[in-house]
Amino acid sequence: MIRKIILAAVVTSSLGQVSFANGHSGAYLAGRHASLSNEFSKASEYNARVLGFDQENQIAFDNLMLSYIALGQVQRAVPVAQSFLNKDKNSQISDLVVLTDLIKNNEFQEILSAIGDTIDVNSLVNGLIQAWAEAGAGRIDAADARFDEFSNDQRLSDFAQFHKAMMFTSIGQMDRALPLLEQVDVRFRGIGQRAFLTRLKILVNQGEREAALKAFDSVYDAVGDPELATLRSQLEAGTLPSVTLPQSVSQGMAEVFLSIASFVISDSEPVFALLYARLAQALSDQDVETILLSAQMLDELGQYDMAVREYSKIPVDHPKFYAAELGRFNVMVAMGNQDGGIEVLEQLVRLRPDVPIGFAALGDTLRRADRPNEAKAAYDMAIDLYKAKNEEPWRMYYARGIVHSMLDDWPNTEADFRQALTLNPDQPQVLNYLGYSMVEKKINLDEALAMIQTAVDQSPDSGYIIDSLGWAKFRLGRFEEALPHLERAAELMPVDPIVNDHLGDAYWAVGRKLEAAFQWRRALSFDPEEKEIDRIRRKLEVGLDQVLIEEGEPPTTQTVQND
């Protein structure tokens, strides 16, 4: 863990302190706001405008370059970076832009001269790019020596071994690459799987199909996993077209940026990973791993239109296609296009009817769209497919139980919830939902109360679970006991209409009628479901007891339970 933190700190070193703009505050503030909001198109427009009247503004320079990079327009950032350097200034971003341009133009000797002089990104980028540049200049032994020197830093040795191996593959020396790739742990974030698949690609190319399959099966179980299943099918066919090897030094240098982007995902802001992924794309624009990573970061940053465009670039026959389509589905739902997301999933399950995760996602989405019959069919398929893999995720039974509840099918609701608890005893969400359902149906009330109490013990800060406990006690006529739980739930969920309505009922039952009316009015202000609005209004008119009598229920004065 310490090693990961140190390495992430090396990669995401400070961009430096910068000066503030003078004058024209409207454009400056708009540019800053757009940059902080990751609205890259607007940020590029406003920051370019700022530089038109303030050529010394480093914030605007950096934000303009970053915006161009994030938009996938690295070439537009090059003259900005050059202009910045011409003022005898530099930043990590400007250095990366200039370095990428030198790589793209195969200026390897210039790279070696510049790093440590006019270019200084960070120790990881500097060291790996210098080693690759030696190879680009035709000095393989010097490159080898630089990688070995870099390996002496224990924090960075895995990166050095991987890139040394990739350097040898780029010049066709596979026998020197293989033993190095074998040393890279497949679990190492950022490069582990890529190193492993590169090794398999080399084995297959050398006619060692059986060795490649044996190695693959020792690490992965491809059953039910669309990416791994596609990779294994390719191996069985004696080829691995989806795994590409660097064909040039510039493509190898793209691997440096991709490695870093993949590594920093979990330790840094998404914009850092996007920065390195986009630079890698500028050098190797057909690399699927790089495209997918850019899409994922754009998605995380809320740039959904750009994310969809990147996800859509993944070929249908590529192992990553399934993951890309799931990403595209998530983006569409985030954009509010639920129907479009459902269409993506329906196409996906038709394409790969053997993969449970697609049916599970489809069931979840149809359930949220209030299409319970279709959701049930999707969950049925998901559960059957998981069973075929000797898996039974509790969440699938829980989700299907909710759908059965939506369909007013209590026997199957209860059966699915109890099966979920068999698979995951004391799971608070399931205990709460089942317990609350039994309270509402006025059955098994003691068991329901015990279930909800266990759920509260598991999740003591969950407002909706605490509300369930209070409501169960209320339905049992234990009004004084119910009240503190319902008050606590209202503290945790102050704008929830159901929670406020429940608290109002409890206040009424203990004789605090003014407070009851106040809570019911609050409940109405928080947009309750249509069927609840008339009932709450009726309570405000005639009181809870009269409403209960009209519904054929005993009033609260007749249901008090004394222990």
Tell me what the structure shows:
- By secondary structure, this protein is mainly alpha-helical.
- The chain has a domain at 462-563: Alpha Horseshoe (Serine Threonine Protein Phosphatase 5, Tetratricopeptide repeat), CATH 1.25.40.10.
- The protein contains 32 helices and no strands.
- The protein has helices spanning 2-11, 25-36, 40-53, 58-70, 74-85, 92-104, 108-114, 123-136, 140-151, 157-170, 174-182, 192-205, 209-219, 226-236, 249-264, 270-283, 288-300, 304-311, 321-334, 338-351, 356-368, 372-388, 394-406, 410-423, 428-441, 445-458, 463-475, 479-492, 497-509, 513-525, 530-542, 544-550.
- Helix 2 crosses helix 4 (58-70), helix 8 runs antiparallel to helix 15 and helix 27 (463-475) runs antiparallel to helix 28 (479-492).
- The longest helix has 17 residues, at 372-388.
- The radius of gyration is 30 Å and the shape is globular.
- Residues 1-23 have low confidence and may be disordered.
Number of strands: 0
Would you identify the CATH H-level superfamily of one domain?
A: Tetratricopeptide repeat domain
Instruction: Calculate Rg over CA atoms.
Output: 30 Å
Using the coordinates shown, work out and report the CATH topology of one domain: Serine Threonine Protein Phosphatase 5, Tetratricopeptide repeat
Helix content: over 70%
Average of per-residue pLDDT values: 91
CATH class of one domain: Mainly Alpha
The coarse overall form would be: globular
Q: How big a fraction of the residues is strand?
A: under 5%
Structural class: mainly alpha
Q: What about the largest sheet?
A: none
Helical stretch count?
A: 32
Q: Span between N and C termini?
A: 53 Å
Parts with pLDDT < 50 across at least 5 consecutive residues: 1-23
CATH architectural designation of one domain = Alpha Horseshoe
